[in-house]
Amino acid sequence: IVYKVFNDNDRFNVTMTSDVTGVEFCAVLKNVVALGVGFAVGQDLGSNTKAAIIRRGLKETMKFSKTFGENVSDDTFFESAGIADLMTTCFSGRGQRLAA
């Protein structure tokens, strides 16, 4: 909470969540999705395939998290810990290097 008080301003917005379980699942499973994207890039399967893997990966992450976690919120997947981190990881290129 102290971090939010000192860093939330008109140029930088800090959002907080109490969904620790959802954040942890997002952090772990995004790497699995990024590997899939890396394989697709390595096979030169194109942008539509990457988008499909990311879309399906997010849906599977949500389903897995809600099945095996308690009180996981849908909102978590559409915040920084969810879709934003997933997109950043998938487009960073690291998945390509690991999949090679």
How is this structure best described in words?
The chain is mainly α and about 100 residues long. The chain is about 70% helix and about 0% strand.
Biggest β-sheet strands, sense, barrel: none
Given the helix and strand composition, which structural class is it?
A: mainly alpha
Radius of gyration (CA) equals 15 Å
Quickly count the helices: 5
Summarize the structure.
This protein is an all-alpha fold and 100 residues long. The protein contains five helices and no strands.
Ordered list of secondary-structure elements with their pairings:
Elements lengths: L1 H6 L12 H23 L4 H22 L11 H12 L2 H6 L1
Helix pairs in contact: 2-3, 2-4
Q: What key phrases describe this protein's structure?
A:
0% strand, mainly alpha, 5 helices, 100 residues, 69% helix
